[in-house]
Queue: 2 jobs
Job 1
Amino acid sequence: MTLLQLSQEYAYSAELLSRRIAQLRREEVAAEGEDERFMLHRRILDLQPMLQQCRHIQRLAAGYYDRSYYRDERYTV
C-alpha cells in the first residue's frame, strides 16, 4: 500500500468520523435528560481529536510524494 492509498483510507475514516459527530450533535440537541446530553457531548469531545488527526495525516500522506513536501515536526522521531 502506498502513502497515497493510505491517505485515501484516512480521508474515508475522517468522513465516517465527521458523520458520526454530526449524528451525535443531533442526538445531543434532541436529548431530554442532562445525563444523556453530557454523555453525548463527552463522546463528541472524544471523537474530535481523532477527526483532526485523520484529516491531518491524510493531508500529510497525500502530499508526501510532492517535491515541495516538508516533513511535519509532529511526526518525526
Job 2
Amino acid sequence: MSSTQRESSRIAALDVADAVASGRLGIIEGCRSLSTLAHDLVPDWRVDEDFVVFGAVNSETDALPTGTARQYWDSAALSREDVNIERAEALYREQVVSACRNVIKRFKDAHF
C-alpha cells in the first residue's frame, strides 16, 4: 500500500471519527466506515483498543439498514428496523464516541 493511500485513509478516518463524535454521522454507519479503514491504519484491528470497538459494532449490527441501503427497503420494514437502529446506537454510543475521540488524538498529527 502506498503512503498516499494510507494518508488518504488517515484523513478519511479523521473525518468519520469527527462526524460520529459530533453527532453528524450515526454510530453504526461510522463504525462501518472506520472498520473498513482499519486495515490501512493499524497492524491488526482485532487487538487495537479503538478499532476493535468499530469492528465489533459493525459485526453486531451488519443486518441493520443504514446509508444508501435504506432506499431499497420497504417502508414498513424500515420503520421496524429503525427501532433496532436507535436501540443499538444508544447501547454503543458512549464506547464508540470515546474510541472516535481516541482515533482523532492518535491520527490527527500522524502522517504516513
